[in-house]
Amino acid sequence: MKTFYNWLENQEPDDIKQQIMKDDLPANLKELFRAVIRYNQQSNGNTLFRLMAKYDNIKLPMLDSHGLAKVSIPFQIRSLLRLLQAGKLPNSMFSAPLTSSSENAGSGAGIGTGGGSAYRDGAFIVVALPGKTLHDEIKYVIVDGSVADANFNKDGMTPTQFLQKELGQGKYIFIDGGEKNNQLDSFFSKMQQYNQKTNTPSQQPAPFNLRTIGIQPTEAEIKQFPDQNKIGIRNRKKGSPGYGSMHYYDKSNPQFQQFIDELKASFGL
Hints:
Elements: H1 4-9, H2 13-19, H3 27-42, H4 48-51, E1 64-68, H5 73-86, E2 96-97, E3 124-127, E4 140-144, H6 145-148, H7 159-167, E5 173-177, H8 184-198, E6 220-224, E7 230-235, E8 246-250, H9 256-267
Parallel strand pairs: 4-5
Antiparallel strand pairs: 1-2, 1-3, 3-4, 6-7, 7-8
């Protein structure tokens, strides 16, 4: 039996365009993502999952982030377009720190993902300015190698430069997170300089890594409320005592350990 990728590799370019790119991607991006699909047929082009690890242990300001990593790359670019049009993350979507540095492994008022940092296995990570949240404003878009390293050249521009031109709007900064034209060192160096320049503690509370108490990312649904002070965690662990229940924590409540004990009991830990 042919796999989907076997089938795709045997198609003519027009067939790829008809079968894969016929959706509602803007016309100015279709040629880029046709090249992206071709590039990712040959190998797993993801780079951020691997390259970001070296920045986890450096001292950084809190960088509120959200990784677009669901369904497919065309779906992720449509999601990115909606976010950039809005200029911020909707209140129904959660955010997390960009890295899992020791500085960020704190008490738990800013629960985001179960892994403690933004997802890195998709095409893009949107990032806020230091000291801001994504629910206030998006500033940076880190482009994974699955897009950034595609064999695409438009008027001398790389994929990341092309996205900057087409989607930057003079408002957003696109960072190349691939291997060919990598800008991660420069980006994180800039963030470190910001940390040294301000020499002030993060305005955001540190996140709590659910895995530290034995809760896996697939076992919990996290809800951030509009006032940014209240967080809800729904138990999705089948067979656990509190399966289906929602547990709330108010960031202004100092009784954090009580909340953790409640979670443990609910998840049967």
